[in-house]
Amino acid sequence: MVAISGECFDDYGGCLAGFEETCRSAAALVGTVRHTEAPSGWTWQARTPDGRRLARSARTYERHATCQSAAERFHSLLTAFVAAGRPGWQGARS
Fold first, then answer.
1. Gene3D superfamilies this protein is in (predicted)?
2. CA-to-CA distance for 21 and 6, rounded, in angstroms?
């Protein structure tokens, strides 16, 4: 698992629309790394320029650098997915 949604959806259509928005916003997403309330834990978030959280890390990381690297990997994978025309996505269940 690379990431999870930063928002909740009532149905599959809403989830699909949220993912499509994340893809459209890929170039403009702002990544942040934050320390959690747990004794040792870092998480990342991908936000729109106006502050909406579209994606976040699926787990916590012990080290800031590892968390930062995971956030960069998410952005790189999302950007590559969009650049490739989202292969395989067109056949997704609706």
1. 2.30.29.80
2. 12
The pTM score is 0.83
Q: How far is CA 42 from CA 28, 54, 73, 92, in A?
A: 23, 18, 15, 33
Spans of all domains in the chain = 4-83
Q: Tell me what pLDDT residue 51 has.
A: 93
∠ CA 27-61-32, nearest 5°, is 30
The C-alpha atoms of residue 29 and residue 7 are separated, in whole angstroms, by 15
Q: Sorting pLDDT into bands at 50, 70 and 90, what band is 49? A: very high
Instruction: Round to whole Å and give the CA distance between 13 and 51.
Output: 23
pLDDT for the residue numbered 88: 62
